[in-house]
Amino acid sequence: MEILQLPLQQLEERIEQEMEQNPVLEMQEDEPDESDSADSFGEQSAEDDASSRFEREDELPQGESPDMHEEFQIADEFASTYTDTIDERPARSQNWLEQQSDLRHDAMANLPMPTVTLQDYLTEQLTWFDISPELREMTERIISNLDGNGWLPTSINDILGMKATPEERELAKQSWQLVRKLDPPGVGARNLRDCLMLQLNVDMPYFDVMRAIIADHLEDVVKNRLPLISKKIGFSVADIHEAIEAIQRLNPKPGASFSEQVAAYVMPDVFVDKDDEGRYVVWLDEGCTPRLHISGYYRDLMKHRDTTKETKDYIKQKVGSAQWLIDSIQQRRMTLTRVSQAIVDHQTEFLEYGPASIKPLKMQQIADKVGVHVTTVSRAVDDKWIQTPQGIFPLKRFFSSAVAASEEGEEEVAQDAVRIKLQEIIDREDKSKPLNDEELMRALQAEGISVARRTIVKYRQAMNIPNSRERRVWT
After folding, report:
1. 392 forms bridges with which residues in the sheet?
2. How confident is the model over 442-456, as pLDDT tens digits?
3. In the chain, helix, strand, coil percent, each to 5?
4. What pLDDT is attached to residue 375?
5. Can you tell me the distance from the alpha carbon of 395 to that of 381, in angstroms, rounded to the nearest whole number?
6. If we measure between CA atoms, which residue out of 475, 397, 461 comes closest to residue 433?
7. In the β-sheet with 270-274, what is the strand arrangement from edge to edge?
8. Are 344 and 352 in contact (CB under 8 A)?
9. How far apart, in whole angstroms, are the C-alpha atoms of residue 269 and residue 11?
10. Model-level pTM greater than 0.85?
11. Among 127, 231, 329, 428, which is most buried by a count of CB atoms within 10 Å?
């Protein structure tokens, strides 16, 4: 279960870590033969059978394993005792070394570049001003109290404390005003209205309208009360509409861009292709996961008559760990393939026509079809991605609850399909006369989806779609 739950990138990291810590584990570069199979050490003679019993998991030594100090002692013993009896240590192949080098280069390339914080960016701008050391120090103190949005949520009194002198308070106010002049515009604001005001410029078109709206009518903008705003400030609805669009181009969180994280690269675990018979078939990219086997050097070392019992016990422990990893990777490959194929077989229309054609599907259905526990399905699809003709999706995307049919005989529809169709209807509605929830319900019925009005309201709110009055575009 532990290995099954790992996405591909974490699995590769786990394998690399295990190979660094476990000397008996090696990467298999060529096609395996019978002597190097993943689950055995090959055919052995009868006299070797006794020394090869450590292969079997049920014959591994029981009890606690040697502690780290003992392992280091045994490792040192390898280097000193067997130099004469074994010609050379097992060497990693050139291909293996090159692959490890590539992995390290990729890891270095994926490290995030050192980022400039908002505080660093603002502090650097202070060099542009001819200010006293005292003012600079106080300004840096104000900058350090800005939040992630670039706002100053703390009052000057809270920053300075109760014992601050009047001179210090006046210096802090000057520092705050200096911060509010820095780039990006809007930093140092106390709230949203203050932040937007700081970004206004008298040269902007509709400056007077924007200032009036920001000062007193942001709540009316949210409620789409444009005629009311027009009546109160004396500008036309058309001017107000243009001003609102200009306000929406302002940055309400000027400091947020300095803390943005780079989106992680998605590495598909499963791929889907259509075969010659028109069936969608899943496959896993075997090239992404190294093929592992257990070192022949340590197998031979187990047979050597001079090998001590402590050394054999150490090797047995490492072999058990290596064999567990090899078996777990193979089990992960089989389970993930079977679960993914069952999902794809159920969601063929999704792959053929797109997400709007998704069918209702529960994990228990896949568990019953594959013959595993539902928790196995959950772990198999957790944080896994699948590359399909329709794009790359998380495997969990293919599971969707059903909307109960409103009438007997009607086919159940996946909730995701209802949401997609609802969004399509709203996108193409007449924005001067948007559809209310009752009309949306009838529009879905015309598309073959029968749901109750309360379901429309629930989905619309979950998708952050305003009601019809708030969606109306005033002209």
Report:
1. 387
2. 998 888 888 888 888
3. 55, 5, 40
4. 92
5. 5
6. 475
7. 280-283, 270-274, 385-388, 391-394
8. no
9. 10
10. no
11. 329
